[in-house]
User: What shape does this take?
Amino acid sequence: MAFIPSPMQLSSPAFVDGAPIPARYTAEGADVSPPLEWSGEPAGTEAFAVFCHDPDAPLISPNGSYGFVHWVLYNIPAAVNHLPEGTAEFTLGADDTEGPGYNGPIPPRGHGEHRYSFWVVALDEDLKLPGGLTLWQLLERIEPHAIGMSRLAGTYERA
Assistant: This one.
C-alpha cells in the first residue's frame, strides 16, 4: 500500500494504543470485535475500510504474505465514524480462517505476546465492493482510492 500521510486518528474506548486488548475481544473471551472510533478523515472521504492483522503470527502464505488476518470490513459509508462492539454492519471480507466476521486474537500457546493492528482507511470513492474479499484482494482494489489511514495497535498473550 502507498504511503499516505494523514491526520486521521483511530482509537477504542476498550483499550489504548500499545496496551493489552481485553480478553472479551479475543477468541478466549466473547470473541466480539472491539468498539472503534476515528476522526480527522480527509476532505473528499466517501467510504472507509477496516481490518485487523497480527504481524507476529508464525504464518507465511503461498502468496508471500505473512502474519494472520483477523478481520476485514468495508463499504462503510463516509458518515460513519465509529463501530460499536460486535458490529455486524457493512460488508464482511474473508479473514485467514477463510470465513467472514471477526476472529479475535489467539496466538499460539507459548509464542508470547503478539501485536494486533487495527487499521481504518479513508477512500475517495464508495466502491461498493462484493463481500468475501481477502485483505490482499481488498488492498489491491482500494489502494488507488486511499486518501487517509490510521492504526491502533493492541497486544495479547494467550493464557
User: Anything to note?
Assistant: The chain has a mean pLDDT of 92. The first helix runs from residue 135 to 142. Residues 2 and 61 are 22 Å apart (CA to CA). Helices lie at 135-142.
